[in-house]
Fold this sequence. Notes:
Helix content of chain B: 25-40%
Number of domains of chain B: 1
Helix content of chain A: 55-70%
Largest interface: A-B, 27 and 37 residues
Structural class of chain B: alpha/beta
Order of helices and strands of chain B: EHHEHEEEEHEEHHHE
Distance between the termini of chain A: 45 Å
CATH topology of chain B: Rossmann fold
Largest sheet of chain B: 6 strands, mixed
Strand order of the largest sheet of chain A: 1-2
Distance between the termini of chain B: 9 Å
Shape of chain A: globular
CATH class of chain B: Alpha Beta
Oligomer: heterodimer
Number of helices of chain A: 4
Number of helices of chain B: 7
Strand order of the largest sheet of chain B: 2-1-3-6-7-9
Amino acid sequence: MNDKEEIRELVIERLKYLPDNIKVSIGNMGSFDKEELIEHIKKDDTIGKKIVEVELHFLMALKEGILSEQRISSD
Amino acid sequence: MLFITRPNYDDTTNYLYYWSEEIIKEAEKRNIKVIDFKGKKANRVDIEKFLKKQNPKFIIFNGHGSAESIYGQKEIIIKSGENEKLLKSKIIYAISCNSASKLGEDSIKAGAESYMGYGDAFIFLYDPNKCSNPLSDDLAKPFLKPSNELAISILKKNTTEEAYIKSQNSFKKEIRNLALGESTNKEAIRWLIWDMHCQKLLGNPKAQL
C-alpha cells in the first residue's frame, strides 16, 4: 500500500464515525451520504480527492493548534 | 438597493434559498429596497437586463459556482471574460463554490468595488429529513449562520473588512461551540474550518453601503 492509499484508508476510517442520517453538500459536485463519500474515496475520483483534501486540511489545522482556546476564541 | 438571486432546484440551492430569507428580512427592516430574483427568474437574460438598467450597490448571488462562473437556475449567469463588467462599482457576496478565485479577481479588475465569497468548495452538512424546512436544520445552521453574518453586517453599513471579520468570528464561535460543547455533531468541525479558510475578501476592504 503506497502513501496515497494509506491516506485514503485513514480518511475512510474517520468518515465511518459520521452519523448515518446526514448528507454533505459539496457545491456543484452534489450531496452525498456517508456511504457515497466512502465510495468516491475508494474510486479516487474528483469528489473523493476533494474529501481527502478537506480531511488533510483539517489535520494540518489541528497540528497548527486551530482548536486551542486562543485560536478559536472570538475577537 | 440589495439585488439577490435565489435559484432553487436541488438540496443545496434549496437550503441557500431559505437561509437567505434572514438576509432579506434584515434589509427590509432597514428600509433597503430588495430585488429578489428567485427560482426561474434567476436566469442570465433577466439578470443581465436588470443589471444594465439598474444600479444596485449590493449583490448577493446564491447558487452553484466554479472558479470562473456563478450559476442561477441551472444556467451560468455571470462568467469571467463574458459579463463580469456588470459588477462594476458593486459590493458582491457570492454564496457559492470557488468563484472568489478567477471570477472574483476578474470582477475586481473590471471595476467591482469588493468581491466576497469562497475560493474553493463551500461545504455544509444537512439532515435530508429537514429539506422541507431547512431553517429548522441544526446540522446546517453552523455553516449558514456565519455566511449570513457577512451579508447582514454589510446591510448594517459595516465595511466589507468588518463584515468579513464578523463572519470569520462567527465561524470560530460555531467551531468552539461544537468543540467544547456536548454536541454529537463534532464531525462538522472539519468542514467548518474548511469553509472559514476558503472565505475570501477581494477588492476594497473599506467598501460599505
